[in-house]
């Protein structure tokens, strides 16, 4: 019989060895450590999450600062509007260069500034503004010696001018987070006497 030139079949090797022999620790395969470390450092799968985690505290702080600044501007606008309205009201009351004529007018102006009502029955326009002592009403005189101001002021040597100033308390909700330590602000408005 003729011999065939074919080789005998080789035994098939197992595709994978059991884990107990192929899953050794890195200490048993020190030549793989630099390659594995390089692959981990070059990987980009979690980079967005890491960047977000690094930026998140600053974004939260900035958010609190915007809310605090918004509240401050809102309270400031309320205070400016209230002293302007109170000065307009006061300018129509009887007064002389020495001051307001009626004794209760100062309290009415203070109540109007703080609550928006003359008798003070309304709630404060700014929640923490509970004291009328933060509102001052002063009357000064502008000289009309040369007849500079005519019309209603003809013949008067001085024109009364009323000023309403207020210092409402301001409590910053996020002060410890933003570093703002503002406790109050002052606004004022003045009007010439127009009774």
From TrEMBL:
The chain crosses the membrane at residues 52-74. Keywords: Membrane, Transmembrane, Transmembrane helix. InterPro entries: TadE-like_dom (IPR012495). Residues 46-88 form the TadE-like domain. Residues 17-27 have a biased composition (Low complexity). It comes from the Bacteria. The keyword GTP-binding does not apply. This is Pilus assembly protein. It comes from Caulobacter radicis.
């Amino acid at each position: 019989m003729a011999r065939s030139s074919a080789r005998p079949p080789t035994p098939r090797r197992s595709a994978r060895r059991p884990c107990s022999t192929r899953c050794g620790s890195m200490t048993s395969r020190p030549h793989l450590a630099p390659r594995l470390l390089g692959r981990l450092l070059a990987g980009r799968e979690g980079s967005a999450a890491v960047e977000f985690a690094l930026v998140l505290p600053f974004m939260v702080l900035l958010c609190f600062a915007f809310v605090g600044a918004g509240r401050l501007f809102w309270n400031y606008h309320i205070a400016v509007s209230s002293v302007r309205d109170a000065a307009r009201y006061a300018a129509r009351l009887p007064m002389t260069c020495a001051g307001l004529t009626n004794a209760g007018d100062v309290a009415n102006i203070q109540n109007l500034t703080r609550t928006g009502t003359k008798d003070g029955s309304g709630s404060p326009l700014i929640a923490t503004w509970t004291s009328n002592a933060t509102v001052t009403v002063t009357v000064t005189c502008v000289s009309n010696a040369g007849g500079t101001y005519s019309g209603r002021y003809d013949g008067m040597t001085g024109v009364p001018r009323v000023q309403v100033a207020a210092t409402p308390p301001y409590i910053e909700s996020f002060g410890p987070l933003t570093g703002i330590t503002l406790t109050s602000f002052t606004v004022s408005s003045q009007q010439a006497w127009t009774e």
